[in-house]
Amino acid sequence: MSTLFLQSEIKNPYLFYQKMMEENPVYWDELNKIWAVYSYEYCTEILNHKSVHIPSVSENSLNEYALKISRNLARLSNEIHHVIAKETATVLFSYMKSVRINSIFSELFQKNTANKINWVESICKKLPVQIVLKSFDFNANDSLFISESISHLIKIMQPVKKSGDIKFINIVSKEVYFIVENHIRTFSFYENLAKSISTKYSISNEEIKSILISNLIGFFIQSYDAGRGLLSNTLLHCFSEKKNLNKADKIQIQKLVVETLRFDPPIHNTRRMAANDILLNDIIIKKEESILLVLASANRDSKQFEKPQLFNIERKNNHDHLTFGTGGHMCLAKHFSINLATEVLFYLFQNFENIAILDQEIEYEPLINARLPKAIWISLYN
To answer: Could you give the maximum distance between any two Cα atoms of the chain, in Å?
Structure first.
């Protein structure tokens, strides 16, 4: 039985996850040569395990700039390289400026002349990246280039890349790398950061610069798919829960965002590799074997969440979801993402009295790891 499938080809993956969690919480997929882990307990154990690493992405035919980015990202690093990259990324996050999400949203919306818009294309694919760019003071031209190139740039993360994508990855990686390299010279904290980390870990300033550039680019990459997915899914659940949701209450909207991250996360699974033999559920996962952590399944584990198949914004432990991971590789953008979705939805409902979703059947992108709506057509009236 294959545990890997395209989200575009299955109507409700949660039925499959529930069956696997009950019958095979740790399952060897012979066809794909990968262990699939479905329960909250075992996903958490793997995420925190010291002998589990992030698998490397394919590097065939990538140019030097694409290689620098992929090799230096905290998200793709292990051991000391991960420690250095994560520390650098954490410092970057701490220097992000607070920007007015409402003004960026308003600018994007004003580009649409009709009251009918594709929420995914017009807002979700653009807003998160533009917020990150503005929070680091990129100029209009550079922001436009990066925003328009991000759909190619994110493919650097794919475990296996199509030959047709590599050409665009290389072109975009080089240009974006140069843009960010020039821009970081304006950062007031750059010199102190480089000196501090190079002294602490005995690495050159050139290496520090490359790590800094790569992880800032990583912010763009991570904001795209995960950001668009969260903004899409939270909007859908706002309408499914409209009878129980006070849209004028920002705290209630934030609770809905957190419950959406548990109940219907944009990213369904992530991969790891056993660095040594691991004992899990009385099963030995051998060194160098691949592991698929189905976090969307773990988020609906009845041993962790009461009545997990029900969407309930008042459940007390919704924040225990594993959508952002846990342990050393937990996503740094947790609070940023929740705040982003909360502010966008609150602004939307404060400024438009009548909002309707025009599509009843949502189609999803042909991806294995992420469940992302292709389009959500909505009508908006003041």
So the answer is: 60
Is pLDDT larger for residue 271 or for residue 353?
271
Instruction: Tally the residues of the chain.
Output: 382
Tell me the C-alpha distance between 19 and 3, whole Å: 12
Residues 192-248: pLDDT tens digits? 888 888 888 888 888 888 999 999 999 999 999 889 999 999 999 998 887 778 888
pTM over 0.85: yes
Q: Residues 318, 254: contact at Cβ < 8 Å?
A: no
Question: 184: closest CA among 156, 154, 205?
Answer: 205
Query: What is the mean pLDDT of the segment spanning 22-30?
Result: 97
Amino acid letter, residue 136: F
CB 250: neighbour CB atoms within 10 A?
15
pLDDT at residue 138 tops 90:
yes
